[in-house]
Amino acid sequence: MSGSAPPASGVPGGDAAKLVPLPNLIAALDACARIERTRCGGGSLVWRRWGTGRPLVLLHGGAGSWNHWVRNIGTLMRTREVWACDLPALGDSADPPEPGGLEGIVAATADGLATLLPGPRAFDLAGFSFGSLVGTCIAARGPGRVRRMVITGAASLGLPDPRMDLRGWRRARDPAERLALHGHNFRTLMVASAADDPDGVALHAGNVERARFFGGEVAAMPITRDTLGGVDVERVDAIYGALDPVVRRDPDSARTVLQAARPGLRFTTIAGAGHWVNYEAPSAFEAALRAHLED
Prior knowledge:
8 strands, alpha/beta, 12 helices, Rossmann fold
């Protein structure tokens, strides 16, 4: 299913997007998106599409949605046909088919891509965090489908537990207390900056509250590390924030694992950024992504 969309001109990306309130930016992107739906269990997998050019698929992080890319789409859609889905059991998408879990998420997403973007080397792929794991599994499931892949802030590398101080929010009944807990987790996990970002906290809280799948267990397994070497992709590269707590603020540990699994992998570290590097340092991230996809 699809619908017509107004032109995408005028939506900022990169650091310019940081000057726009997130609700306004999300509304502008939604207004110019074309919505596509593919089968997902008993419902639909929801995709948003912008722009024209070589297709670039964006897969968001755990307990997130397409809006993990909110500050990047405005730039990327100027030269690319950008596809961003809500992964199964997250955002607006239905729960995955049996057997559920990671296997069901990968199957439904891969089948959706085969429907929307058929053919060999049909698209490039960028994954953030959990999306890097899903993207790696999709590439392994469909040899020859992905041209280039860039993984960002990937876990599932077999590294030591980062032991972050994340706090449970489900039992909090007071809305202010609940939001404060989400804010703590946002600052602990997602960003390195100590600056107040109420819109970012609200976006994060909204995504987490809607999530029906949490990837903590698979993040602790070395699935990305063990799968990456065998994927049939023209090239695989990686981008990390220098202060990413998922790798204990030591991106060189991820570099070592990834380059051992995939010799020749190019690795970019972005100074001053945490886990959600594409949100926190959008222009630097977009420049690195463009270099990895086009050089």
